[in-house]
Fold these 2 entries.
Entry 1:
Amino acid sequence: MTDISYPDVVNYAVPFFIAAILIELLWINIKGRGGRYETRDAVTSLIMGAGNVASGVALGFIAWGFFMMLWEVTPLDLGTSWWVVALCFVLDDLRYYWVHRFGHRVRWVWASHVNHHSSQHYNLTTALRQTWTYTFTFMMVVRAPLVLLGFHPAMIFFVGGLNLIYQFWIHTEAIGKMPRWFEAVMNTPSHHRVHHGRNPRYLDCNYAGVFIIWDKMFGTFVPEQEEEKVDFGLVHNLGTFNPLRVAFHEWIAIFRDMTQRGLTLRQRLMYAVAPPGWSHDGSRMTSDEIKAHHLSKRPEDRDSPGF
Amino acid sequence: MPLSVLIPVVVIGIAGIAVILHLLGLTAPRRLADRAEALAAWAREFPELPATDAQLSADQRAALILMDTGDAGLVWCFGADTVARPLAGSNLRETKTGFDIRLHDVGAPRVTVTLTPEDRPRWKEALRA
């Protein structure tokens, strides 16, 4: 079975994305709460989203070719039953959790993912501020086990698209908390706001795509604290709306760091694969060091969520 | 969805949202209200580098930050928000209205600061320290 196909759901969702952004904007303007917009920030996010689709068209053949090569060698074929699609969706969401976690803990992968966190706003346009350079992270290998287990590559891309569409609506401040049962199982605006926080408490947590249970299983869940409002953006925020700089700034920074004079080979490698903020001379701080610095100033926060 | 449909939808969608945001007044430049706001904006990004003083630019869109260590930093308005960077290693060029600062940072390459003639000497001294 090699000729199955599924709709490109992300492309079909584009009109829905635009309509939802307009509805959120209208809501914020009528209610005077529930988030904020700024023209250049929003336009940058939307251009990043368009560029992400374009990069998928231009470079998607690499991942597709890799997966079809694996599909040729695997003896397993689970077919296309609805339960296989559902199982593929759940397992791909587990894959997403780990790729996303690597995206925050390995600078090479962070270089691609950082642009999604580079807005100081948190609205539905932020959801579309997506990477142009995912192919260069080589994180496609994390999906290889799914193909080898017998899930067709077309099905894997289909459920990946559904995963991305699910994550669109959680990028909002207009929704407070969902019902308790939903918050317990699913990723929600509240959980994902925390993920976009630059507060020391909220760094490196809530990596889930659709099911928040992965964070609870792997010890990375931090609930949104009523007494600590999320401050959105990067530890050191960008000072540019130029989409090219947004897309490539961290890759260029890695290159500059790795090519400094006087470093050992190990130090050069660490600038690419160590957590973001690592430096050979200790002149920068990783998220662990930022949390430790915070606790040195505010020891009463020790053992509270996120610390 | 064929590209012949997707591309116009994306282009018209982005342009339409941009026009609506602008007409709603959401392109208005932010200004720093006072010295305290500039210091808070600095502490937000560099809590490990305590500031002792801040001096606002003439248009209140940037502030010079002075630190315990004698080093200087810069806070500036960026869209509806603020960005901050230490000034060590930056390049300074004087312009008719103030300074053009190059930060050698791909993610924050350049800041233009508007200053009164009276403010220039102090900024110049701090920026060249």
Entry 2:
Amino acid sequence: MAFLLRRLVFYLAAFIAAATINFFLPRLMPGDPIQKMFAGAGSDLSLENLNALKLTFGFIDAPIGEQYLAYLKSVFTGDLGRSIRFFPLPVTELLGRALIWTVGLVGTATIIGFTIGTLLGVMAAWRRGTRFDTIISLLSIFSSSVPAVVVSLITLFAFGYTLGWFPNGYAADPMLDPSWGWDYVGSVLYHGTLPMLTMVIVLTGGFAVTMRNNMINLLGEDYIVMGRAKGLSDRGVMLWYAARNALLPTVSALAISLGAVLGGSLVTEVVFNYPGMGNTLYQAILARDYPVIQGALLIMTAAMLTANFVVDLSYVLLDPRLKRA
Amino acid sequence: MNDPVLSIRNLSIDYIGATTDFHAVKNVSFDIGKGEFFGLAGESGCGKSTIAFAISRLHRPPALIRTGSQILLDGRDVLTLDDQALKQLRWREVAMVFQSAMNSLNPVLSIERQFYDVLKTHTGMSRLSARARAAELLKLVDIPADRLSAYPHQLSGGMRQRVVIAICLALNPKLLIMDEPTTALDVVVQREILERIHKLRQELGFSVLFITHDLALMVQVSDRIGIMLEGELVEVNDAQAIYRTPQHGYTRKLWASIPRLTGKPIAEVTP
Amino acid sequence: MTLLTQLLRNKKALVGVTILAIVILVAIFAPLLTEYSPTQRVGRPHQAPSAEHLLGTTRLGHDVFTRLLYGARISLAVGFGAGLLITVIGTVLGIIAGYKGGVVDEVITFLTNMVLVIPNLPLLLVLAAFIGQASPLVIAVILGFTSWAWGVRVTRSETLSIRQRDFVKSAEMLGEPSWRIMAFEIFPNLISIVGINFIGSVLFAVITEATLEFLGLGDPNTVSWGIMLYNAQNASALSVGAWWDILTPCFALAVLGLGLALINFAIDEIANPRLRTGGMLARWTGLIRRGEGTL
């Protein structure tokens, strides 16, 4: 419990750090920060609305410390301002919709990639030096080194444009209304296939390499030799003695790689015109819609921290040494 | 010797390198009788653990047991066994205590689970009866049954090694191999463990292959002792004979390297 | 045996080094390998590959092959520049944290963990959005200053174990100043970790630069693989069927990435003997087959 509590405090600090970056970035750039932040609005923004936005972002007539506190206050009360491009749509609402798609895409792809990659890594390590190991290792090295942008462009080219098997964009058929009916869900799955495939290709190799190397490092341990000496089945020793222990460092590696996973999904969303956080951020950058850009950083950081916390929880479940700590 | 439990004949084991081989064990032969406590001594890297691993066929590539070697357990050559027969032989006939007490229990499984998997695999025992049997075994090594739900990190090093010994006895093996079982433990715990093994051996009648580099300790506990040097077995004799009248020059050197309390070496080195 | 000779004996490393060497040579000798200039119109828009234009032309009539050759310069420069910066920062902070311990360690570790949980690419996007169009140099510098955390983490934990070794203890007894111990006792033992960190960072920087440029945060007048992707995407190359325009930089990035990853995997194998399989296993299998022994 103490472990989890410590992590929570740390995550709070990390979130404040992200907010601090947001606060200082416009103020450190050359030129007038207010001018820069809200320039995209042109003259559409009434004075009243502009003042409300200024307040949200801490641009008040006060020393910098008070400005900072004012900004933190709006962040922690859930006020991330309004989109300039889609005024007066609140940033939280715009990004909230996008977040659902990204979490669905990244979450599913991470689970699939982690499961497949870890299993492949386990089998490769158990049969190390065999042809199976060589092939899996080479494929994994390739998968972990190819940029997401390259994989998504090639998948889009091959399965979207050339073969025409899958749609080239959107999360669902725009003619359908969102519902839990089969038509809509089916359309979501159909549209999600290529982005998902891309993400799985990009993620699986890294997990496979990590798991393989962690497991090979453990194979000489006494408890694994003892598992074999006990006459247990090969599968039993492989899964419950070797893989079960190698999973611990692999899960820590997963936590570190979550940022890269999110980064990969950003690009994939842009290529497939998928309406998630990445695409929304991209559109906001093109339109210089700074409230949305800043909000995206905060919400993605929050999402990362949540994901990290989930990993922490699973780590506690996996490692008996942490349970009573 | 009549009906030895273990009979090793012409055992040669190499570690295969990219271009040359390392001969870890060279043409070694010895017997261990029923109920006997046999010690195998020699400095680290002399091949004694390699022999121990070979008896349960625990080696991994690039180790290679050369054709022509024989390891007879009750007259049956373990080197000819197929995978299935080998798995049945392991632990049921030969159990093993490993070098590091801290590290031979699986850190993520409870103690009970580590009894259960071996009992389930070999006897098909249910969880409930495995639990009862495990409690009984833990009693043999003076550990209360409520520690069954503990994880290895919650036990001290000495306790962990006693748990391993209890697991070793689960299937009443004929031979217990102890590969430097006490090096990671302090002297008091070390003595306690060896005394316990001695007592259990009298009760249960298994033989012991005890491996260590600590010759003085070995003489106290073993019936017979083999001395190894660079993969060869250079001398085998009764423990008392090894102590009082060492034949091989290397054995004498080993004794000479151990200072006695009186300050004089135990045996003079003759060049 | 030194790391370098061992590297050349490893098949994966050999392939990786060869790929990297080819890319470097191409970057250096680009002007000799093509008759065109990368920034001039030399053909009609979106011409398919032909003898005249080996990899076709872009929508602006630039020769794709020429841009590919010249683009290698920027990718390599940003990759190695940012990679070096990332490695230097990561190694220095990692050694200091691991060796000094105490408050210094706590501060560095705290910062490192923080950088690790704030998602990198979104942060870069936000930074780049405020900066406007970023030149390759600016991208390299930003990457260098935001991506060192992983390096600190691995260097620190390795330093912690080296600090306990006898030669460090004895240097301390002799009263050597701590900077000397860190630079001459500890650092030489970290070479393989530093190597892995460096190659991994180069790979990361190459990928990230291309990604940022693809997303439109680079300077569109640069000749680089990322800008090639950006221009091709803006020209809707895929939907108009000009696959050569977009697949060429894709292929280049994939091959360079693979080369770097192979080198890294090989360093890992050399530094960690347990991961190595190599020749002995082939010989072992042969001996088993010939019936010379068993396991």
